[in-house]
Automatic annotation (TrEMBL):
The keyword Flavoprotein applies. One of its GO terms (molecular function) is FMN binding. Belongs to the flavodoxin family. CDD domains: PTS_IIB. This is Flavodoxin.
Amino acid sequence: MKKLSVIYWSGTGNTQMMASAISKAASEEGLEVNVMSVDKADKNAVLDADIVAFGCPSMGAEQLEEAEMEPFISEIEQENIAGKPMALFGSYEWGDGQWMADWEDRMKKAGVNLIDKGLIIQSTPDNDGLERCEELGKKLASY
Ligand SMILES: Cc1cc2nc3c(=O)[nH]c(=O)nc-3n(C[C@H](O)[C@H](O)[C@H](O)COP(=O)(O)O)c2cc1C
């Protein structure tokens, strides 16, 4: 059974809702899913997984959350993650998704295999948003 790690930061729960929907769908499709907030994660949660999904909302000014997610991503970038299948997701409010475009570029430079475009959802995911999360979970499972 392939292992998926879903590692997220969420201040007000929107990105956490996305993480839960992605995890549930991936698990139903047969992946062994390990979902955790980034403060509970260490680099082995990434290195030991077959597939990784990272979630973080747009914070700062179109940036990753700086106290926990940014240091974790910086740490992971130093590791050998070339070829690792990965998906990115997160919630935003008023911006144009620039934080996600920048995050995708960073991960591509680290050599990861982004298996889909970063999934961004404005504010709290509605039913349509949750369906998009479930689709991503299924896509991860079919990878
Ligand atoms: C300090 C702070 C900075 C934010 N900066 C941005 C931003 O630059 N662009 C944007 O679209 N939304 C920004 N937001 C809005 C959040 O991305 C949005 O509320 C999101 O749904 C929060 O997700 P969460 O519930 O997972 O924490 C910011 C929110 C906070 C609290």
